[in-house]
């Protein structure tokens, strides 16, 4: 459990590592010297198992019903939060249900619908260009290969992997800012280039885990292992992470840094996720899902 949670039972599934345990593990790693490939792989897989236990409800945080909706939502999510995109897409898809409707929509109307996401003119242009290409070249159906997806306007490898992994069931690693940062903190890669990070991490895990792993790292990056101040003192993989100490190690100080459903006071929301409720259901019940 996360020590000091107001309702401890709500986070009972989250592994708690004491500062002493984390420091002892770090000392053992220092004594062992350079990590072999085999030890790194074993440590990586242990981290994944702990993250899977911590976030059993981890899925793509963008709401979607099909590949088309996920593709548009992912393109819109550049430079903004998934939560903002989820607030905009129901109206957008109600007005323009598929690529044909969006391709034919007046540009000003589309811009107005996505205005709250920032860069709204270019985002509107991107999704309409995307719609036009999918109508013209793929008979209005989103293609299901990485080569075809990255040939679409505004679609890079990250977006293609999100769509393949979550809408087509094709394993894919999504290297966004959280994934890249955590892969480096875990010592899985030293690379900054997302394509190289993807290759390094892919070598550590069977492909069947790639999509799930992507969600788990992104969840962990948003809730615990933040960019500026990671909550090391309440991190469930503190004893497996060579970057332990990058943020506060005191559990009480670290607890204040937790985000989303792990944040103190959000026990009902966490219990809802653990009970298998979807984000849409939880929102309908009045929960706010922001950080
Ligand atoms: S840097 Fe800290 S919060 Fe991030 S994974 Fe390592 S121990 Fe956990």
From TrEMBL:
Catalyzed reaction equations: 2'-deoxyribonucleotide-(2'-deoxyribose 5'-phosphate)-2'-deoxyribonucleotide-DNA = a 3'-end 2'-deoxyribonucleotide-(2,3-dehydro-2,3-deoxyribose 5'-phosphate)-DNA + a 5'-end 5'-phospho-2'-deoxyribonucleoside-DNA + H(+)
Co-factor requirement: [4Fe-4S] cluster
Bilayer-spanning residue ranges: none
Keyword Phosphoprotein: no
InterPro entries: DNA_glycosylase, Endonuclease-III-like_CS2, Endonuclease3_FeS-loop_motif, Endouclease-III_FeS-bd_BS, HhH-GPD_domain, HhH_base_excis_C, HhH_motif, Nth
Gene coding for it: pdg
Organism: Kocuria varians
Domain of life: Bacteria
Keywords, alphabetical: 4Fe-4S, DNA damage, DNA repair, DNA-binding, Glycosidase, Hydrolase, Iron, Iron-sulfur, Lyase, Metal-binding
Region (Disordered), start-end ranges: 20-39
PROSITE patterns: ENDONUCLEASE_III_1, ENDONUCLEASE_III_2
Enzyme Commission code: 4.2.99.18
Cofactor note: Binds 1 [4Fe-4S] cluster.
Family membership: Belongs to the Nth/MutY family.
Record CDD domains: ENDO3c
Name this polypeptide is given: Endonuclease III
Organism taxonomic ancestry: Bacteria, Bacillati, Actinomycetota, Actinomycetes, Micrococcales
GO biological process: base-excision repair, AP site formation
Its job: DNA repair enzyme that has both DNA N-glycosylase activity and AP-lyase activity. The DNA N-glycosylase activity releases various damaged pyrimidines from DNA by cleaving the N-glycosidic bond, leaving an AP (apurinic/apyrimidinic) site. The AP-lyase activity cleaves the phosphodiester bond 3' to the AP site by a beta-elimination, leaving a 3'-terminal unsaturated sugar and a product with a terminal 5'-phosphate.
Domain HhH-GPD: 76-223
Residues involved in [4Fe-4S] cluster binding: 225, 232, 235, 241
GO MF, any single term: DNA N-glycosylase activity
């Amino acid at each position: 459990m996360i020590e000091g949670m107001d309702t401890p039972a709500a986070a009972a599934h989250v592994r708690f590592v004491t500062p002493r345990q984390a420091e002892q593990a770090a000392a053992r790693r220092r004594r062992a010297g350079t990590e072999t490939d085999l030890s790194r792989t074993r440590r990586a897989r242990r981290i994944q198992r702990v993250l899977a236990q911590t976030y059993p409800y981890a899925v793509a945080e963008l709401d979607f019903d099909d590949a088309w909706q996920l593709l548009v939502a992912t393109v819109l999510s550049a430079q903004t939060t998934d939560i903002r995109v989820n607030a905009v897409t129901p109206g957008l898809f109600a007005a323009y249900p598929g690529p044909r409707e969006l391709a034919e929509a007046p540009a000003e109307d589309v811009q107005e619908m996505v205005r709250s996401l920032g860069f709204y003119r270019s985002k509107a242009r991107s999704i309409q260009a995307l719609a036009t290409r999918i109508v013209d070249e793929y008979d209005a159906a989103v293609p299901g290969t990485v080569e075809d997806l990255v040939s679409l306007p505004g679609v890079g490898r990250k977006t293609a992997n999100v769509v393949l992994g979550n809408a087509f069931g094709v394993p894919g690693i999504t290297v966004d800012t959280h994934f890249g940062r955590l892969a480096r903190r875990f010592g899985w890669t030293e690379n900054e280039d997302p394509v190289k990070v993807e290759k390094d991490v892919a070598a550590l895990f069977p492909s069947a885990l790639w999509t799930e792993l992507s969600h788990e790292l992104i969840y962990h990056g948003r809730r615990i292992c933040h960019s500026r101040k990671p909550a090391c003192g309440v991190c469930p993989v503190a004893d497996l992470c060579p970057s332990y100490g990058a943020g506060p190690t005191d559990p009480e100080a670290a607890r204040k840094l937790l985000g989303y459903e792990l944040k103190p006071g959000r026990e009902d929301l966490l219990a809802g996720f653990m009970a298998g409720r979807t984000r849409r259901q939880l929102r309908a019940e009045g929960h706010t899902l922001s950080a």
